[in-house]
Amino acid sequence: MATRKMSKPMGEQILVASVVILAIAWMVPLVWIVGLSLKSSLELVVDPNSVFSFPYTLKNYADLMVTSNLGIWLRNTLIVTITQTVLVVAISCLAGYGFARVEFPGRNVVFILVLMGLAIPQHAVIVPLHKMFNDWQMHNTFQALILPGLSGPFGVFLMTAYFRAIPIEIEEAAKLDNASRFRIFWEVTLPLAVPAMATLGIFTFLSAWNDYLWPLISATRPDMYTLTVGLAATQTNIDQSEGLGYLMAQAVFAGLPMLILYIFFQKYVVRAVAGAAIR
Amino acid sequence: MKRFKTFVTMGALAMALVIPSVAQAQTEVRFARFFGACEADFGTNMDPSLPSNECGVITTLTNIFNEQNPDVRVVPEIVEWGPYYEQLAGRIATGDVPDISVMHGDMLVNFVRRGMIAPLDEAFVEAGIDVEDIAPGPRNNVTIEGTVYALPQDFVTWIWHTNSGLMTQAGLGEASAPVYPTSGEELLAQARQFKEATGLPYLAMTLDANAMARTLYTMLMQSGYELFPDSTTQIDLHSPGPREAFDLMQQLVDEQLMVISPDWSSAYTSFSNGEFGNMIGGTWQIGDLVRLSEQTGGALEGYVAHVFPAINGEPAVWSSSHSWVMLNGGAATPEKREASLRFMKFLFDNNIHWARTGHLPMRTSLMTDPAFTEMPYRIGFGDIPPIAQTLPKDVLQQRIIQPFIGEELLAALQGQKSAEDAFAAAEERVNTYLARLR
């Protein structure tokens, strides 16, 4: 018996077509950047439209690999980013569970104080932060690069909201089995918060990877530069009038880990965002 | 086998003991600079004649010095231009002071006033640097109240980049020997002639506030105008001089004899494609444009660089310098100090190589040296030192107030506001800022 194809409603077809168009629009700049990174910088000065024609070259990437401190910058960035991500997720989960489940005097006041941190931009505290780490003689250390990023009101807010949305009945079953508070948190509640943790982890990773201002003023020794500071320092012309191909290769290289990360974790991001919306 | 392993282990142990001690014999000189990082092209280069840009030359000179001085290791600490001074101030505040730092001449007084820079008069004698050979202009840039605070590296000045091929086509000179105007009237006449012959704009400027300000400075210096007549904290942009200079530029724009490129990238592209005759710019761009001309040829054949023509009075041009300073707190040991001064002496001795970037050398003896005078693509550069001028040294934060002026005038040039409003706003912004400085 032949199977009848079900045609999609018109509205859905329009929606899909719109999404495809938007996706192409978003992809065009990225494709353009990759194209520019595969062209000679000199050729791009004379004719920026040469990105659409052969020849292409990998010289910009080869030059990037030869830049002597690239490995060091990458290492530093990975250390700072991964450590900060793990610690932020851990701290946010613990704090979020506490605010969501633990009754203690002044809980709401403390929670509001934490949330007030969302209203304070990094630039407002950069001077006292710089002085504080200077007094502790901690500049040019990984601790100085990691610690300021651990104060994450957004993470606490996100995890608190997520934990609150998990039905309390799930934990009460474990309580009946005489499980400790921490054991309930670790074995029952935390596994259910993986999507939110993944989201927070991705946001934190992204923020830490792309951080420029704090590493610029805290890591002044080249062996402590992160990728953002190190790549910015390779600008060879004050007018930025040439070196476009090399600059785009830097951009692609710096953005590649983000892209890979998102490809592997995107389902968690979508699930978390969609789940939060439904609730 | 066991004996072999023991031998290898003992050998490794011996090396581990020896190598650190060898490494420790080197004195490290921390060398804070901008100019970019170009290890890919010049990371191991030892031939100073190869590079023609700032990054390549300074990287090569550093390589050569390190090789010739095995007891010293100069370690570049490279920061991008934009936040360089903010980071340097932060480093000074935290005590993480480099041994040698680059500094623009117009920034020097800001650090000297705060006691952050060590005087170098005696140090130069110690290092064998012939101060008398430093040309008056750069030496003046680094001398504050009679004390020398830096080793200048060059003259940085304002020029026209010229496509002499197009100028020849317009009947304005010959290949590599174009004719330049010597007054406002001549400028307009030549510009009109050029446009009629080629259909192209005669002149281009970039939508860069600093470029606009430097152009105005140059034109005012040519007319002998005093920008700071009464005090170094009060600029005068309301007297007739600035408006007259600006009106000349406005007329060029109105008659489509001058175009304004959105940025330097597009200006380079347009210039390399022969879309205008002259581009207003700086000496640091010569090396890049020479490379562009030589490697792409085509419409940019016949590239030459000429000092900004005297279109508003007598020959004069805005100038500045790059210089090397020793900040207080850096080079803290006698060994580091000696090594740092040795490197500075090396830069002084090899100043001619820096001239390949397009900047003028800072040594008087090099001004008449064929190694400089016979550098191609440069017209009349030997005449620049006597006419190079700076803003009054005591004007603080010149690099901050410069874009205030440029932004306002560019807005007027593009018709976004009237010239009166632009000058009033520029004056108000500069004077308000300078008045708040402590």
General description of the model:
The complex is a heterodimer of chains A (about 280) and B (about 450). By secondary structure, chain A is mainly alpha-helical. Chain A has 14 helices and no strands. Chain A folds into two domains: about 10-55, no CATH class; about 70-280, MetI-like fold (Orthogonal Bundle), CATH 1.10.3720. Chain A has helices at about 10-35, 40-45, 60-65, 70-100, 105-115, 120-135, 140-145, 155-165, 170-175, 180-190, 195-210, 215-220, 225-235, 245-279. In chain A, helix 1 (about 10-35) runs antiparallel to helix 14 (about 245-280) and helix 11 (about 195-210) runs antiparallel to helix 14. The longest helix of chain A has about 35 residues, at about 245-280. Chain A is globular, with a radius of gyration of 24 Å. The model of chain A has no long low-confidence stretch (mean pLDDT about 85). Chain B is α/β, with parallel strands linked by helices and about 450 residues long. Chain B has two domains: about 25-155 and about 320-375, 3-Layer(aba) Sandwich (D-Maltodextrin-Binding Protein, domain 2), CATH 3.40.190; about 155-320 and about 395-435, Periplasmic binding protein-like II (D-Maltodextrin-Binding Protein, domain 2, 3-Layer(aba) Sandwich). Chain B has helices at about 1-25, 40, 55-70, 85-95, 110, 120-125, 135-140, 165-170, 185-200, 210-220, 240-255, 265-270, 285-295, 335-350, 350-355, 365, 370-375, 385, 400-415, 420-435; strands spanning about 25-35, 70-80, 100-105, 145, 145-150, 150, 155-165, 175, 175-180, 205, 260, 280, 305, 315-320, 320-325, 380, 390. In chain B, helix 6 (about 120-125) packs across helix 14 and helix 19 runs antiparallel to helix 20 (about 420-435). The model of chain B is unreliable at about 10-25 (pLDDT under 50). The chains are: A mainly alpha (about 280), B alpha/beta (about 450).
